[in-house]
């Protein structure tokens, strides 16, 4: 959305902005583009609903709208936010958007905004390759400026900027995601204001404000990215001065947002921890032949592996299971190994032994079956 505010609005370029999560079907998406196109030049004119069932209808109506709005001599921009959601629609939608200029014979540019790489939602049927532009992470100065714009009206801008400075000083090394930092800023601001509300300190007494907020930020650090509890439950814990784990009915790591391959890595780690090595051939090979059931296997069939707990496994076995459960081919790149390290940092995996072992590192999965089921879904 910030691309629209900082680029299209100042230059007054004709554009349409649609969030693909909000308009989650192809019909809703195409109709919203046509509705916004009607009002893109004349804000006062009343827009009407435009029924559009297929992409052929969209191309025809799009041409008519461009002519009626006298946009033939201008470049029209269609911005699709969260573009990875197009994978859930009909197979022809994404390739058609990539060739929209050719199909409509109009000067139109489609901009796809996404937080995942293009290779993960490129259609299998083939399509026109878009020009890919990668944006770097926000610097701490950019984050400070963006987050400080959301200060509550009852407090001064300097007071809220000081709070954001403290928040970034704690979380910037582990979290640089703008949405997550905005969530943390809203969640902990009331605790930061408590000494001011009680009259124990003024807005410039940063030392007292810091001493009051420091233990609560450390608690929040333990659950960054992990939606273990709701915001209302977290505020209740803050008032009671209890630990997050003391809330009844709380299951650790119930909801977590992980990168695409990290989810498969975690599932592969769980399978490696709770399945014996001898069953890998039976479970993960298509043509494994006949497996003879020995007396040793029958003896242990009655014992649940979940009762015995997770077993350590080597890195090679983890990657072998990963390759068998992922549909597309996965290259053993530095990105995959860094995601394994991130899972260890998040305590979803634990490393057994030391890094200097000659036979390579060994890991153990630390999450429950319910958590893996949620990830698999």
TrEMBL record:
It is found in: Nucleus. It comes from the Eukaryota. Residues 258-377 form the Origin recognition complex subunit 5 C-terminal domain. The keyword Nucleus applies. One of its GO terms (molecular function) is DNA replication origin binding. One of its GO terms (biological process) is DNA replication initiation. The keyword Nucleus applies. One of its GO terms (cellular component) is nuclear origin of replication recognition complex. Keywords: ATP-binding, DNA replication, Nucleotide-binding, Nucleus. InterPro entries: ORC5, ORC5_C, ORC5_lid, P-loop_NTPase. Residues 160-227 form the ORC5 lid domain. Component of the origin recognition complex (ORC) that binds origins of replication. DNA-binding is ATP-dependent. The specific DNA sequences that define origins of replication have not been identified yet. ORC is required to assemble the pre-replication complex necessary to initiate DNA replication. Belongs to the ORC5 family. Component of ORC, a complex composed of at least 6 subunits: ORC1, ORC2, ORC3, ORC4, ORC5 and ORC6. ORC is regulated in a cell-cycle dependent manner. It is sequentially assembled at the exit from anaphase of mitosis and disassembled as cells enter S phase. This is Origin recognition complex subunit 5.
């Amino acid at each position: 959305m910030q691309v629209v505010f900082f680029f299209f609005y100042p230059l007054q370029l004709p554009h349409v902005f649609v969030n693909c999560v909000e308009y989650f079907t192809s019909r809703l998406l195409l109709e919203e583009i046509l509705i916004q196109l009607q009002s893109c030049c004349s804000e006062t004119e009343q827009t009407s609903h435009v029924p559009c069932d297929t992409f052929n209808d969209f191309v025809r109506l799009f041409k008519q709208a461009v002519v009626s709005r006298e946009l033939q001599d201008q470049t029209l921009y269609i911005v699709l936010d969260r573009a990875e959601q197009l994978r859930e629609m009909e197979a022809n939608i994404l390739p058609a958007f990539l060739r929209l200029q050719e199909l409509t014979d109009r000067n139109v540019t489609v901009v796809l905004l996404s937080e995942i790489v293009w290779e993960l939602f490129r259609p299998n049927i083939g399509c026109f390759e878009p020009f890919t532009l990668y944006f770097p992470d926000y610097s701490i100065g950019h984050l400070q400026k963006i987050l400080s714009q959301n200060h509550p009206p009852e407090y001064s801008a300097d007071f809220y900027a000081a709070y954001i400075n403290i928040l970034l000083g704690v979380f910037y090394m582990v979290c640089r995601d703008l949405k997550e930092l905005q969530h943390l800023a809203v969640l902990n601001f009331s605790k930061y204001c408590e000494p001011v509300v009680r009259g124990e300190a003024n807005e410039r007494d940063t030392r007292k404000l810091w001493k009051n907020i420091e233990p609560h930020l450390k608690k929040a650090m333990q659950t960054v990215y992990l939606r273990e509890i709701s915001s209302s439950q977290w505020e209740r814990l803050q008032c009671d001065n209890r630990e997050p784990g003391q809330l009844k009915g709380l299951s650790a790591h119930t909801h977590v947002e992980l990168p695409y391959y990290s989810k498969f890595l975690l599932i592969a780690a769980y399978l490696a921890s709770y399945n014996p090595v001898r069953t890998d051939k039976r479970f993960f090979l298509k043509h494994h032949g006949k497996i003879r059931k020995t007396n040793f296997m029958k003896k242990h069939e009655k014992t649940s592996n979940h009762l015995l707990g997770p077993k350590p496994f080597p890195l090679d076995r983890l990657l072998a299971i990963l390759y068998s459960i992922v549909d597309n081919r996965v290259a053993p790149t530095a990105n995959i190994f860094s995601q394994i390290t991130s899972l260890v940092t998040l305590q979803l995996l634990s490393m057994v032994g030391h890094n200097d072992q000659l036979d390579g590192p060994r890991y153990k999965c630390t999450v429950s079956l319910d958590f893996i089921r949620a990830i698999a879904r």
